[in-house]
């Protein structure tokens, strides 16, 4: 992910830390919210997600049960960025991404606020994920923005949708030596949208990405993470996230063409 592009394609980004589960998080959320409110995140919205839980398999499979998961949105007043807090994770997300230097420290801010309230023991997962919109101009095609290996299969039929996905084992930062990077490119003719597992709840899109009419485009979806027991050392966590980001930058450069980088520069 190149930094300080004047016409950067990032339309949604998140950075996340999973920590040891805190079943009583609802007891502490007021304290966390008040700390973040005083640091520029005054909006507060609880949200409840309903999902099915299926246990067992085959003849031993139990009747599916409905479960509810509660999380809390703690957001800037202009709804450009905010936190999602749950019983075992905190996420910082934004629809107005600028640079890594302004992005990663906000996740650390939120994680410190949680630790101050509940005294966390460790972190179990760290990750970053970016969505980049490839939006050709009227005289251009998507192919001009993506390297040859991502152009997909062509034959005499109208293509509705295409997906390219690659998964890599990576060498990462100081806390864990190995990570996983998932690089996807979605191609379609539709309004610009979000993967179902990555919805910017509580945030407003940047105006140039608020595209509701169908148009040919691609989405570069890059997810890089590490999983394992990590001590709550905020300096090392910051270094680990910075290392994860550096690899995302490399894969972004390997995905986009020189033409794309010129348009986005």
Topology:
Blueprint: E1 10-19, H1 25-37, E2 43-53, E3 65-75, E4 81-85, E5 89-94, H2 100-118, E6 122-134, E7 161-171, E8 178-190, E9 215-231, H3 234-255, H4 258-264
Antiparallel strand pairs: 1-5, 1-6, 2-3, 3-4, 4-5, 6-9, 7-8, 8-9
InterPro entries: CHP04255
Protein name: TIGR04255 family protein
Question: Care to describe what's here?
Answer:
The chain has about 260 residues and is an alpha+beta fold. The protein has one domain (about 10-265). About 25% of the residues lie in helices and about 35% in strands. Strand 3 and strand 4 (about 80-85) form a beta hairpin. Helix 1 crosses helix 2 (about 100-120) and helix 2 packs antiparallel against helix 3. The chain is globular.
Termini Cα gap: 12 Å
Q: Outline, from the CA principal axes?
A: globular
What's the average pLDDT?
Answer: 93
Total domain units: 1
Strand order of the largest sheet: 2-3-4-5-1-6-9-8-7
As a whole number of angstroms, the C-alpha radius of gyration is 20 Å
Q: How many beta strands in the DSSP annotation?
A: 9
Order of helices and strands: EHEEEEHEEEEHH
Largest sheet: 9 strands, antiparallel
Structural class: alpha+beta
Tell me the β content.
Answer: 35-45%
Protein name: TIGR04255 family protein
Write a short abstract of this structure.
It comes from Candidatus Accumulibacter phosphatis. This protein has helices spanning 25-37, 100-118, 234-255, 258-264, and strands at residues 10-19, 43-53, 65-75, 81-85, 89-94, 122-134, 161-171, 178-190, 215-231. The protein is an alpha+beta fold and 265 residues long.
């Amino acid at each position: 992910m190149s930094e300080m592009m004047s016409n950067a394609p990032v339309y949604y980004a998140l950075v996340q830390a999973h920590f040891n589960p805190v079943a009583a998080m609802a007891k502490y959320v007021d304290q966390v919210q008040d700390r973040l409110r005083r640091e520029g995140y005054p909006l507060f919205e609880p949200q409840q997600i309903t999902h099915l839980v299926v246990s067992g398999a085959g003849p031993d499979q139990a009747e599916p049960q409905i479960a509810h998961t509660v999380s809390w949105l703690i957001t800037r007043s202009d709804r450009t960025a905010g936190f999602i807090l749950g019983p075992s994770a905190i996420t910082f997300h934004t629809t107005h991404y600028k640079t890594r230097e302004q992005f990663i420290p906000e996740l650390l801010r939120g994680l410190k606020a949680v630790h101050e309230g509940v005294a966390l023991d460790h972190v179990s997962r760290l990750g970053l994920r970016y969505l980049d919109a490839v939006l050709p101009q009227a005289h251009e095609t998507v192919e001009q923005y993506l390297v040859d290996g991502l152009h997909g299969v062509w034959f005499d039929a109208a293509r509705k949708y295409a997906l390219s996905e690659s998964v890599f084992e990576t060498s990462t930062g100081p806390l864990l030596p190995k990570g996983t990077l998932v690089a996807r490119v979605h191609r379609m003719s539709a309004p610009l949208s979000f993967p179902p597992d990555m919805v910017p709840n509580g945030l407003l899109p940047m105006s140039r990405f608020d595209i509701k009419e169908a148009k040919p485009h691609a989405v570069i979806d890059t997810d890089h993470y590490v999983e394992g027991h990590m001590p709550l050392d905020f300096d090392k966590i910051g270094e680990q996230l910075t290392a994860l980001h550096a690899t995302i930058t490399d894969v972004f450069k390997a995905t986009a063409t020189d033409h794309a980088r010129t348009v986005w520069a």
